[in-house]
Amino acid sequence: MNEQTSNPNAINEGTNEQAAVSSLPARPEPKPEVVTEVQPEVQKETDSQAADKRKQVLDEAVSALALTKSALAALDEKESARALATLAEVTGKLELIVAREPTLALAPVDVRTIVHDLFANTETVEAMTDEALHALKHGEVQQARHVLALLASEIVIVVTNIPLASYPAAVKSVVPLIDQGKIEEAKAALQAALSTLVETHSVHPLPALRARLLLKRAETLVEDGQRSEASNERLETLLNEARQQLEMAELLGYGKKKDFEPLYAELKKVKQKTAGGGGGKGWLDEVKAKLSKLF
């Protein structure tokens, strides 16, 4: 697995065509302390989701892909016999996959995780959105594109797959070309087959994940009807930040306003119930259920 963490606050200085984003602070805005607290759990969740995807990777598919590249290398070295033998192995691996799972369309060969984390508050995100809209209104499409590219806070799990409907046939079509001595055409055909690998993307919004983890921490305090003043303050902080994270998710377009309104309403109810120091079990069940349904 290849992991890459991208900081959207970093401005690309590689081209003059992309102007700096004027609404972006000169420095990344720090995250609230309670958000920093749940970061280890965010990382654990990220690793868990990637691990679940990795379990779906097929060893035969990984071997088939590696052997395809080996066959291409053999052709580069003018070793036609080795290339043919290697392609026969590729075909055997692919046929085994299809025999085991006839309905499988995509055979996973690789999983990687990309994390886009936005170090900005909701006010900054609103300003950036306004800047993008202003740019579009005035025909500055590339400037808008540059701004919008930064407006993401998410875990993206990318799975690379062999398309079983076309890849096996593409590999087999190379054999007659090698037999006819058309090595360059055979190489081009193999490269074309390798270019047909399909990537699927699973997007998991970080603000929603953080909101869920903050609510999990708040739940223990909500259930305690004998909270101290310090505990009351912490509970209020957790609930307020959970709301902020949901607002961030809405601003970044991970759902529509109507999707978030019930969540805000449930959080408001919980805050009202706990405002006087009250507590009870199950008070956060509804908001957690709605959040799980949305994400």
Number of helices: 13
How far from one another are the termini?
Answer: 24 Å
Question: What percent strand?
Answer: 5-15%
Order of helices and strands: EHHHHEHHEHHHEHHHH
Helix content: 55-70%
Q: What value does the average pLDDT take?
A: 92
Q: Which word captures the global form?
A: elongated
Look at the helices and sheets and give the structural class. Answer: alpha+beta
Question: Tell me about the biggest sheet?
Answer: 4 strands, mixed
Strand order of the largest sheet: 1-2-3-4
- Poorly predicted tracts of residues: 1-19
Number of domains as seen in the coordinates: 2
Total number of beta strands: 4
Radius of gyration: 26 Å
Structural summary, described in words:
The chain has 13 helices and 4 strands. 60% of the residues lie in helices and 11% in strands. With 295 residues, it is of the alpha+beta class. Helix 10 runs antiparallel to helix 11 and helix 11 packs antiparallel against helix 12. The chain folds into 2 domains: 202 residues, no CATH class; 89 residues. This is Heat resistance protein YfdX2. InterPro entries: PPIase_PpiC (IPR000297), Uncharacterised_YfdX (IPR021236). Keywords: Coiled coil, Isomerase, Rotamase.
Which features characterize this protein?
60% helix; elongated; disordered N terminus; 295 residues; alpha+beta; 4 strands; 2 domains; four-stranded mixed beta sheet
